[in-house]
Structures are given as C-alpha cells and as structure tokens.
C-alpha cells in the first residue's frame, strides 16, 4: 500500500517509524514531514491545509491510505474533501470528518455533547457578545479560580485560569473582543478541577473502538512542573495511578458514552479520540477532547503497541475494529523532549544538531528539525523527542534522559525530571 501521512512533528515521526515497519507499507509519503520522517519515507513539501495540493499528491503517488496527524486539516475538513471528490473517495482516511473533529474544534460543542451524554466534566456555561452582561454577572459569583476557554482552536493558548473575579471579567471582555481572533467569539466559563491529569486514547471506526495505552504528559517548561505551559515536554506510559479499576471507570463512564453518543447523533467518526482527563479523588473527568493523537504522548504510546499499525488502521477504515485484538506491551515507555532555548517564548531556528549518533538505547523521534546541506538543524520550538522502552519506568526514564544529554545544539534544553514524580 502507498500511504500518505500528514504532519511534521514528533507525533508524525513516531507514526512514520511504526508505519514503515509494516510489510503492507510499500511507499510512505509524509507531507511536509521533518528531517526524521525522511528516514522512514519520502517528505513532500506541501501545506497540508492546501487540499488541492494534497489531492494532486494523492493521485500522483496512487495513495491507498491517508493518515492525518494534526487537528487543523481535520477541523478544516480534509476528510470531507476526500469523501466528496470522485477521484479520492475510495481512499480511506484516518481522522474524523468536520462533524467529528468539532469535538476538538469547538469547546462549546464538546461541553454540550458531554452534558447530553452524561459524561463527567467540569460544570460550565458559554457566553458570547449577545449575553455578555449575563456572563459578567455569572463570573462575579463564580468560585475561584475560574477557567476561561476560547471556544475554537487557539494553538494551545486559549485556556486561562484566573484567580480574581475582576480579572476574569476583563479577560472575558478581551476574549470576546477578539484576543484570540474568531476562536474566542464564544467563551466557555468552567469550574476549576483539582487533580492529576492523564491522557487516554482510542481508535474508533464509529461503532467499535480499541483502547490504546494511556499516557501522562508534562506541560510546563520548568523542572518540578513550574513555569509556562508548552506543547508538552515529555511523557510516560503506562501511568502508575491509572490502575485497572480507574481505567474501567474511564471506559464505562467516558469512552463508551462518547463513542455511542457520536453514533447516536449520526456522526460517523473514523480516527483517534484523545481524552484529556483529570483524576479528582479517584473519579475521572474530561478536561477536553482532541480529534487526534497527543504529542509527545504518541512517542511513548507507539512504543507499546505491538500490532502492525497499517493493519490497525485498515481495520479501522473497514469498520472491523470489533474483531480486532490490540496487543499492548507490558513494558514502560518514556519520552523526553529536547527544546530550543527560549521556548515556549521566542526562540531561534537553524542551530546545527550534533550527537544524534551518540544515542545508545532510545529512539530520537524528530519534531522541529530540517535537513540542510548535509547537516540537521533545528526548525521549531520542540526539536527532538527521545523515547525509550524498558522493563521498568525508572529504567526507561533514565535511558531517555541520559540519551537526551548526548545530543547538542546551541540553546538546547530539556527537563531532567520527566516522570520521576510518579515513581
Ligand atoms: P485544554 O486546552 O482544555 O486542555 O486546557 C489546557 C490545560 O488547562 C489543561 O491541560 C489543564 O491543565 C488546564 N485546565 C483546563 N480546564 C481545566 C479545569 N476545568 N480545571 C482545572 N484545570 C483545567
Ligand atoms: N500533549 C498534549 C496535546 O497533544 O495536546
């Protein structure tokens, strides 16, 4: 089969690594990819949101399967575009259509969806300019802290946690005034939940699903979970506090009602659902849905999936997940993300990376890298995801952390404490 994978981050590098191991994968194309994905397939430098360009590529290379990594093309309707085009409609797409991607694309929709299907989540209400006065009054009597969320996609920046009523009112006004562009034209005001977060993933064919390994990511830039939020500085899988009983609660109260809820609303969902969850006193609540896999969770999760990924995706595309046996390694995976100096604020690109050959016992999944003139250079804030699979979580963490130290570029930074809080 010829496979086209959309995206350019560590998640896509991990997918490319795994897809390329399948005997069923004849040719793998990654659009646009990075210096790491080029080790597993052929990078094609097109913008994945330019669907006509994706179409031309799919036809030229006789693509048999489209796998969409990031949310943006999904929310923009890449699956709908393929389904509606006579020349492309036969190509299965891993990733939901617009009507399913709205679970991630609109927080207002996802909160109402959870309410309709009695899925545990923080209490919330949504406001727009039409009911601003009501929103301000609602905020004045809200318990602190208050969570404000821009409804639409805001590149991970649209969530504010505020400790003061007046400030929350000012922020509501600013968001409705366009602080996050159109994404903030509706704002979800949400109760703050206290607990520890984890991520759970399923792949669904719209009716059946398989549960993939759960993971925990580390979002803050600084050691000890301090400082600014990032896209994710590392991850571990499994998550020690997610025991069988807790995972069972997640499946019964959250996964099943979500998959059944989508079906009952006539939403034919083919792809990943990422449940961003929080454990509040041993009870799971949904913080958010995403219509894709997590990054850097994928880099750990993929190491524990023993099945052939092409077979898994084809079972999903053919709506045969009901009979599919997923095999998960009992081993422990850890990922340490190496980032550019200054990230998540301003950072420079184009720094020469050395030491990739020094890695001993991990895999370097590339995130923000580019190959230029025989060298590999940094090309983003998150640069490399160093991932390891070992018998114990301690060994996996030690190995990934030690290998992260073997790589060099000007301004390089990584957290040395990923996962050690869980041991
Ligand atoms: P989201 O983009 O919805 O995942 O939110 C980003 C981050 O904000 C989450 O990963 C949580 O750390 C935090 N967060 C969001 N909603 C809540 C909430 N209701 N209670 C506590 N923390 C939250
Ligand atoms: N690591 C969180 C995310 O992918 O959204």
Task: Present the secondary structure layout.
Layout lengths: L1 E6 L2 H10 L7 E6 L9 E2 L7 H10 L4 E4 L2 H6 L1 H7 L8 E2 L3 H8 L1 H10 L7 E5 L3 H9 L5 E5 L8 E4 L2 H12 L9 E6 L4 E9 L4 E3 L4 E2 L2 E3 L3 E4 L4 E4 L6 H21 L6 E10 L2 E8 L6 H8 L4 H9 L14 E8 L12 E2 L9 E4 L2 E4 L2 E4 L3 E9 L2 H12 L19
Parallel strand pairs: 1-2, 1-4, 2-3, 4-5
Antiparallel strand pairs: 6-9, 7-8, 7-9, 10-11, 10-16, 12-15, 13-14, 15-18, 16-17, 18-23, 19-22, 20-23, 21-22
Helix pairs in contact: 1-10, 5-6, 7-8
The protein binds adenosine monophosphate and glycine.
Glycine binds next to loops.
Description:
It contains twelve helices and 23 strands. The chain has 423 residues and is an alpha+beta fold. Among the domains are: 95 residues, Rossmann fold (3-Layer(aba) Sandwich); 69 residues, Dna Ligase, domain 1. A five-stranded parallel beta sheet has the order 3-2-1-4-5. Strands 12-15-18-23-20 form a five-stranded antiparallel beta sheet. The protein has a four-stranded antiparallel beta sheet with strand order 6-9-7-8, with helices on both faces. β7 and β8 form a beta hairpin. The longest helix is centred in the middle third of the chain and has 21 residues. The structure holds adenosine monophosphate and glycine. The site of glycine has 6 residues, from loops. The site of glycine (GLY) has 6 residues, from loops.
Total number of beta strands: 23
Name the hetero compounds present. adenosine monophosphate, glycine
Please summarize the sheet with the most strands. 5 strands, parallel
Please identify the oligomeric state.
single chain
Please identify, by name, the CATH architecture of the domain at 2-96. Answer: 3-Layer(aba) Sandwich
Spans of at least 5 consecutive residues with low confidence: none
């Amino acid at each position: 089969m010829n496979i086209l994978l959309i995206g350019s981050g560590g998640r896509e590098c991990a997918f490319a690594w795994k897809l390329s191991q399948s005997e069923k994968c004849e040719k793998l194309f990654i659009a646009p990819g990075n210096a790491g994905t080029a080790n597993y397939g052929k990078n094609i430098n097109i913008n994945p949101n330019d669907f006509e360009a994706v179409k031309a590529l799919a036809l030229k290379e006789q693509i048999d399967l489209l796998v969409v990594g990031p949310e943006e093309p999904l929310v923009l309707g890449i699956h709908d575009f393929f389904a509606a085009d006579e020349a492309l409609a036969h190509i299965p797409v891993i990733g939901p259509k617009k009507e399913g991607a709205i679970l991630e694309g609109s927080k207002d929709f996802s909160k109402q969806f959870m309410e309709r299907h009695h899925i545990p989540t923080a209490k919330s209400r949504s406001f727009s300019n039409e009911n601003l006065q009501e929103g301000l009054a609602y905020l004045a009597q809200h318990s602190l802290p208050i969570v404000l969320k821009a409804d639409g996609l805001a590149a991970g920046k649209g969530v504010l946690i505020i400790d003061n009523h007046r400030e929350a009112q000012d922020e509501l006004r600013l968001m409705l005034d366009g602080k996050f562009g159109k994404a903030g034209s509706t704002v979800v005001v949400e109760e703050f939940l206290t607990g520890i977060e984890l991520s759970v993933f399923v792949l669904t064919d719209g009716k059946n699903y398989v549960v993939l390994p759960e993971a925990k990511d580390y979002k803050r830039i600084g050691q000890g979970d301090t400082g600014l939020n990032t896209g994710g500085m590392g991850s571990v899988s499994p998550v020690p506090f997610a025991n069988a009983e807790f995972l069972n609660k997640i499946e019964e109260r959250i996964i099943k009602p979500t998959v059944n809820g989508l079906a009952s609303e006539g939403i034919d969902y083919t792809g990943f659902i990422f449940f961003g969850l929080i454990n509040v006193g041993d009870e799971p609540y949904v913080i958010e849905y995403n219509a894709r896999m997590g990054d850097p969770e994928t880099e750990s999760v993929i190491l524990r999936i023993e099945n052939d990924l092409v077979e898994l995706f084809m079972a999903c595309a053919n709506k045969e997940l009901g009979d599919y046996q997923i095999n998960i390694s009992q081993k422990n995976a850890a990922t340490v993300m190496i980032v550019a100096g200054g990230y998540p604020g301003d950072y420079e690109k184009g720094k020469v990376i050395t030491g990739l050959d020094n890695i001993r016992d991990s895999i370097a999944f590339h995130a923000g890298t580019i190959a230029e003139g025989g060298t590999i250079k940094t090309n983003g804030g998150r640069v490399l995801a160093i991932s390891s699979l070992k018998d114990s979580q301690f060994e996996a963490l030690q190995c990934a952390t030690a290998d992260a130290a073997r790589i060099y570029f000007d301004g390089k930074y990584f957290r040395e404490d990923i996962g050690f809080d869980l041991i």
